[in-house]
């Protein structure tokens, strides 16, 4: 049987790790990983974790009390009301849109089971509702935005070169 001091030490370590994740993340998406039925299997959670790891994110099952305490310690207001029931958080460190898209796509792929259920999130000092998460997921990812910007920058040069070369082609 573990002593109270060991349990307290483990909780404090988990709380420190949770604070660190909140500080480093550009987005945190709260999900219900059990839903109404049996919930996600270990295989499904591992698949989601692998998908998120590939785009610079991670998926952690958390205790609501510790997540609320970590958020409060960091001055994140408004998350306490969303930390109800079985909760897992998808943290995104690089591209918030890619993480939101990955979580929502995974939820749509597992629609028959109904899990995970992304219900809220936190980004740039604001609590996001499900509608805002959907809007975030609909945004292009960072590499797609960079490609579009580069295409716009090069298009004017291509047009000028086309006009200048047109008399020589005729």
Features:
170 residues, alpha+beta, 5 strands, elongated
Structural notes for this entry:
The structure is a single chain. With 170 residues, the chain is an alpha+beta fold. It is 56% helix and 17% strand. It contains six helices and five strands. The chain has helices spanning 4-24, 42-54, 64-73, 96-109, 130-138, 142-169, and strands spanning 27-32, 57-62, 87-92, 117-123, 126-129. A five-stranded antiparallel beta sheet has the order 2-3-1-4-5. Helix 1 packs across helix 3 (64-73). The longest helix has 28 residues, at 142-169. The chain is elongated. The N and C termini lie far apart (89 Å).
What is the mean pLDDT?
87
In N-to-C order, the SSE pattern is: HEHEHEHEEHH
Characterize the largest beta sheet: strand count, sense, and whether it forms a barrel: 5 strands, antiparallel
- Terminal CA distance reads 89 Å
Strand order in space, largest sheet: 2-3-1-4-5
Helical proportion? 55-70%
Beta-strand residue fraction: 15-25%
Rounded to an integer, what's the Rg over CA atoms?
21 Å
Query: How many distinct beta strands?
Result: 5
Silhouette: elongated
Low-confidence stretches: none
Structural class based on helices, strands and sheet pairing: alpha+beta
**Helix count from the secondary structure assignment:** 6
């Amino acid at each position: 049987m573990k002593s109270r001091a060991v349990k307290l030490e483990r909780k404090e370590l988990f709380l420190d790790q949770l604070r660190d994740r909140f500080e480093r993340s550009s987005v945190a998406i709260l999900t219900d990983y059990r839903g109404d039925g049996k919930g996600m299997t270990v295989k499904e959670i591992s698949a989601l974790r692998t998908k998120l790891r590939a785009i610079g994110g991670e998926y952690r099952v958390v205790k609501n009390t510790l997540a609320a305490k970590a958020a409060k310690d960091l001055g994140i207001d408004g998350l306490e009301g969303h930390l109800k029931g079985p909760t897992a958080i998808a943290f995104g460190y690089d591209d918030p849109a890619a993480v939101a898209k990955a979580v929502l796509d995974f939820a749509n792929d597992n629609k028959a089971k109904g899990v995970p259920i992304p219900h809220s999130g936190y980004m740039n000092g604001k609590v996001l509702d499900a509608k805002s998460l959907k809007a975030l997921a609909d945004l292009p990812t960072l590499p797609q935005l960079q490609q579009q910007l580069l295409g716009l920058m090069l298009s004017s040069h291509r047009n000028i070169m086309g006009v200048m070369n047109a008399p020589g082609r005729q």
